[in-house]
Amino acid sequence: MSWQQRFRQALDQRRAADGWRQRRIIDEQTTRTLHSGGRCYHHFSSNDYLGLTRHPAVIAAWQQGAALTGAGAGASGHVTGYHRQHADLEAQLADWLGYERALLFISGFAANQAVIHLLGEKNDRILADKLSHASLLDAASHSPAQLRRFSHNAPESLAARLVSPCEGETLVVTEGIFSMDGDSAPLAALAQQTRQAGGWLLVDDAHGIGVVGEQGRGSCWQQGVRPELQVITFGKAFGVSGAALLCDADTADYFLQFSRHLIYSTAMPAAQAFALQAALHEVQQGEALRQRLQQNIRHFRRGAASLPWQLMDSESAIQPLLVGENSEAVALSARLAEAGCWVSAIRPPTVPPGTARLRITLTAAHRPEDIDRLLEALHDAAG
Fold first, then answer.
1. Is 123 one of the catalytic residues?
2. Which of 123, 236, 282, 302 could form a disulfide with 167 if both were Cys (CB 3.0 to 4.6 A apart)?
3. 236 included as an active-site residue
4. Is 47 marked active-site?
């Protein structure tokens, strides 16, 4: 079979399964609204949970940083790409979250890949929550370490896996708040079991950092857990992009010496580090934003309780509405678009077969009337 035949076969199968992914050109967007194809929509697919993407202080910091340092880093951090602003941001993050060190990465995907790529060796094992993000599971599946999955948010399932002997080291992997279900991991129980077995815990808290915990310190802080490895990302509540790994000093030095993802990638622009310091300040001072977000979540859940689709058990900004079949999720998303609400349909392989859903995301920038508009459209579609 030629490359072209292989491509056509895979594409035909994707279309037949109603799983076709399509990018749509966005002309303009805020956290609340989105303009595309000449129409304005109420926006319910953004991860900008605190509405900081358009915050004047964040924008001004990026502009100032670009004026001072240029638009790009120009090289890897190991060459000439590591600026004072990177070092300052790393120190601030480590102090904020109670770690010895922080290392910046260009994206959360890159950070997760880097951690698992570097740590997993032949005699090691990786025990991952089965609903962990693709960046974690893909890296683990390509690692020389043995990958085993435990049942979602089930400490007893992890315990059963940990009983089996392992010649090497054990890395337990989970998310703080899961990106597709919106539920929270029982981090305290997972951490206790992992440490009793002599393993390390890696928590990807992309959707918890900035949103929960004192000063927005995230899921681990909220549950009184400090995992050996914590990945936080800046494309959600921080309103920017990039990521950081929090760890101890020896681990940070090991990554700086041996992580190909750090050594051979152009560094984050220093201007972005300027913006992230401004965003960090807003996150730390953002209790009113977090309270407003929680109010919006409660408002939506009250109004959606009587819908015929399953509202998943989530108290986070991610409010999945389980529809079932791919075609039904796509049709419901289209109905909402006709009513002026932009909500993405999520289908396999991103989620398990038969669990296609609308992934509704709420933010502190939404107003009660925005949520009422969405609820009205959902009830009309159900009617």
1. no
2. 123
3. yes
4. yes
Entry pTM: 0.95
Q: Is 179 a catalytic residue?
A: yes
Instruction: Give me the catalytic one of 90, 129, 175, 205.
Output: 175
How far is C-alpha 320 from the chain's CA centre? 15
**Active-site option among 42, 55, 133, 261:** 133
**Angle, alpha carbons 56-62-66 (nearest 5°):** 145
Specify the DSSP class assigned to residue 331.
H
CATH 2.60.40.1120 applies to domain 56-284: no
pLDDT for position 383: 81
Q: State the chain's mean pLDDT as an integer.
A: 96
* CB 218, CB 245: distance < 8 Å: no
Alpha helices in the chain (DSSP H): 3-16, 56-69, 84-97, 108-119, 134-141, 155-163, 187-196, 219-222, 249-258, 260-263, 270-284, 287-304, 326-338, 368-382
**Mean pLDDT score, 210-238:** 98
Of 44, 51, 58, 47, which is closest to residue 365 (Cα–Cα)? 51
Instruction: For the chain, state the CA radius of gyration.
Output: 21
Sequence spans of domains, the chain: 24-50+286-382, 56-284
- Percent of the chain that is helix, strand, coil (3-state, to 5): 45, 20, 40
Catalytic residue at 133? yes
Q: What pLDDT, on the 0 to 100 scale, is given for residue 267?
A: 96
Second-level CATH architecture of 24-50+286-382: Alpha-Beta Complex (3.90)
Reference 185, options 164, 206, 162, 210; nearest CA is 206
Rounded to whole angstroms, the Cα distance separating 236 from 52 reads 9
pLDDT tens readout for residues 329-380:
999 999 999 999 999 999 999 999 999 999 999 999 999 999 999 999 999 9
pLDDT digits (tens, 9 = 90+) for 95-109: 999 999 999 999 999
Per-position DSSP letters for 15-47, written without gaps between them:
HHTT--------SEE-SSEEEETTEEEEE----
Asked whether 333 and 344 are in contact (CB, 8 A), the reply is yes
Tokens standing for residue 295: 């109010």
Tokens linked to 99: 């770690």
The number of helix segments (H) and strand segments (E) in the chain equals: 14, 15
